[in-house]
Design a protein that fits this description.
476 residues; alpha/beta; Alkaline Phosphatase, subunit A; Arylsulfatase, C-terminal domain; 2 domains; 9-stranded mixed sheet; 4-stranded antiparallel sheet
Length: 476
């Protein structure tokens, strides 16, 4: 990645961009509305614009044609809670201590060589969240869906900067499933059989309806398409009749994706109705890779929970009609912590006022240059056991999707370091997207370079590396 100056887009620049749009926005509003549309467990190839022939996502695909597609977009972790903590705080995982979901020592103890780093499950209120920063810039803020970072007065969505919270609490999946009754204290039950994805969309639309001349920020974090796998019965037969596509063959999961896609379509339709379309930025993103027992991430290796590309490489679209050029593609690696500084810049604030690890993406949106950083990083000092019945790559035969490890991507190169035994894996992603060939022995200089950078970064962010041996471990 070339080093270039980051474009700082303040309020004046945003106003100038709006003035150059084909049609003026019929509003007094000078700041863009911002919607972060986060789908849970949606794999990199689980949408049509990324190549799926099995799932049907016409609204998402239309958005891709109308916006900018990011082909190398990453979550900050291979599972739910740490990714969300990074999104809200703008910080890498060692800064807030949320590394995984719940217990970091998962799977068969006799196979775990190390005692994992202790894990936090709540985003502490001391962190200034994305929502709090945007409120300071005059935004109305709304959280819809899955929060997974705590609950109550201080660590629930309302305690972390959101004016409105719909359905968000500490749970990581819908307690009552996807059909009412929901068993969610933050979401009154609808009519029996009402579908959760539809209901959350209706609630989001109600919030948009209430907005007029003041800008709003909506964090629409769907529970879908996380387990339990429950789709509308009327949608399932259509997919049951389709031919599988490279491991994608679950008709119920396909039905869930269809409902998610319809949700996005309804949101955009409401923006059009309110004459807000040309003054609204939507980021379409996912929190980690697809569930390995449900979908296939091929050609990417691995799935949710893995340090391979299938674990945290995401489908991403940046959509802002008239501002972001339609039909464009960006291949530069970006990561979830980049959204916070991006939104602050577009709101007229100054990212330097906050302690953030990401970089503003506005220069990429407007094709004004590259990012100035050289690399992005992951730190996952925890264990995640394999899914039952799922065939994993040969490298994952220990019985875990992930063992305590770290990773770096620098340019086209990616290095994974296993904390258990020091094993290194080096991949050239440009020529080997499937991470099929470990190049450590063939390219020792590149291995040394990336390992040095990774360890330097860990020192900078004070990332704890587990070293305590597990007394219950039994060598195989």
């Amino acid at each position: 990645m070339q080093s270039k100056l980051i474009l700082t887009v303040g309020l004046a620049a945003v106003s100038a961009l709006q003035a150059s749009a084909k049609e003026p926005v019929p509003s007094k509003q000078t700041k863009p509305n911002i919607i972060l549309y986060l789908v849970d467990d949606l794999g990199w190839r689980d949408v049509g614009f990324m190549g799926s022939k099995y799932y049907e996502t016409p609204n998402v695909d239309k958005m891709a044609k109308e916006g900018m597609v990011f082909t190398s977009a990453y979550a900050n972790a291979p599972n739910c809670a740490p990714t969300r903590a990074c999104l809200m705080s703008g910080l890498y995982t060692p800064r807030h201590g949320i590394y995984t979901v719940g217990n970091p020592n998962r799977g068969n103890s006799a196979k775990r060589q190390l005692i994992a780093t202790p894990n936090k499950e709540t985003l502490e209120s001391k962190f200034v969240t994305m929502a709090e920063a945007l409120k300071k810039s005059g935004y109305a803020t709304c959280h819809v869906g899955k929060w997974h970072l705590g609950e109550g007065a201080e660590t629930g969505p309302k305690g972390q900067g959101f004016d409105v919270n719909i359905a968000g609490n500490h749970t990581g999946s819908p307690a009552g499933g996807y059909f009412s009754p929901y068993k969610n204290p933050q979401l009154p039950d609808g009519p029996k059989g009402e579908y959760l994805t539809d209901r959350l969309t209706s609630e989001a639309i109600n919030f948009i309806d209430d907005q007029n001349d003041d800008p709003f920020f909506m964090y629409f974090a769907h529970y879908a398409v996380h387990t339990p796998i429950q789709g509308k019965k009327e949608y399932i037969p259509h997919y049951a009749s389709k031919s599988p596509d490279r491991g994608q063959d679950n008709p119920t999961y396909a039905a869930m994706i269809q409902s998610m896609d319809e949700s996005l379509g309804r949101i955009i339709e409401k923006l059009e109705e309110k004459n807000m379309k040309d003054n609204t930025l939507i980021i379409f993103f996912s929190d980690n890779g697809g569930h390995g027992g449900t979908t296939s991430c091929r050609p990417l290796k691995g799935s949710k929970g893995c340090m391979y590309e299938g674990g945290f490489r995401e489908p991403m679209i940046a959509w802002w009609p008239g501002k972001i050029e339609a039909g464009t593609t960006c291949d530069e690696p970006v990561i979830g912590i980049d959204f916070y500084p991006t939104f602050v810049e577009l709101s007229g604030g100054k990212a330097k006022n906050y302690k953030l690890d990401g970089e503003s993406l506005t220069n990429l949106f407007f094709q004004e240059g590259d990012l100035k950083r050289d690399a992005i990083y992951w730190h996952f000092p925890a264990y995640l056991q394999n899914y039952k019945g799922y065939k994993y790559p040969e490298e994952l035969t220990k019985g875990f999707r992930s063992v305590p490890s770290g990773a770096i991507r620098k340019g086209d190169w990616k290095l994974i370091e296993d904390f258990e035994d020091g094993t290194l894996k080096l991949y050239d992603l440009k020529n080997d997207l499937s991470e099929s060939t470990n190049l450590v022995k063939d390219n020792p200089q590149k291995t040394k370079e990336l390992l040095k950078d990774l360890r330097k970064w860990r020192k900078q962010v004070k990332a704890p590396v587990p070293i305590e041996r597990n007394p219950e471990y039994k060598k195989q």
